[in-house]
Design brief:
- The chain is an alpha/beta fold.
- It has one domain.
- It is built from five helices and four strands, in the order E-H-H-E-H-E-H-E-H.
- A four-stranded parallel β-sheet has the order 1-2-3-4.
- Helix 3 links the parallel strand 2 and strand 3.
- About 20% of the residues are buried.
């Protein structure tokens, strides 16, 4: 194996990182209705039931969360301006994901308030978002020479 600097080295199992990435997690009204419980809470765990084992097998487990998770405060809604309850974030964590991507054509649904709510309220996830990627003072990441 040759590293990015052109030096040859033997690959070790510790050098290997496995990654799993979902397509869009795009929750429409019908799924929200199925997730609603009698007490007014939501449970989205069923969405990931058949994927948990496969997700758990990767080191980096990314969920492309296409929808805004801004909670009931912003009004739960589907297409065209998505906003989901925080319980969806719980289900994403429970499924085993450890990174969520938030940069999408729905990032500004709810005029950006949903994205900010999501970033404040989520626990157990690293988040990638258009707000994080567009910081004016961020440093450019350059690939190694070679």
């Amino acid at each position: 194996m040759t590293d990015p600097y052109g030096e040859s080295k033997e690959a070790k199992m510790d050098d290997i990182v496995s990654i799993i990435v979902t397509g869009e997690i795009l929750i429409h009204d019908r799924i929200v209705e199925n997730a609603l419980r009698a007490d007014g809470s939501y449970d989205f765990n069923f969405v990931f039931d058949q994927l948990r084992e496969e997700i758990a097998g990767a080191d980096i487990r990314m969920a492309n969360t296409e929808v805004i998770i801004g909670g009931k405060e912003l009004g739960i809604s589907g297409y065209p301006r998505f906003n989901l309850p925080y319980e969806l974030a719980d289900a994403i964590v429970n499924a085993g994901f450890n990174v969520t991507l938030q940069a999408s054509n729905h990032s500004l649904d709810r005029d950006g308030a949903g994205r900010q709510q999501f970033l404040r309220k989520t626990r157990g996830l690293r988040t990638g978002s258009s707000v994080l990627c567009s910081r004016p003072n961020s440093k450019e990441i350059k690939p190694p020479k070679g």
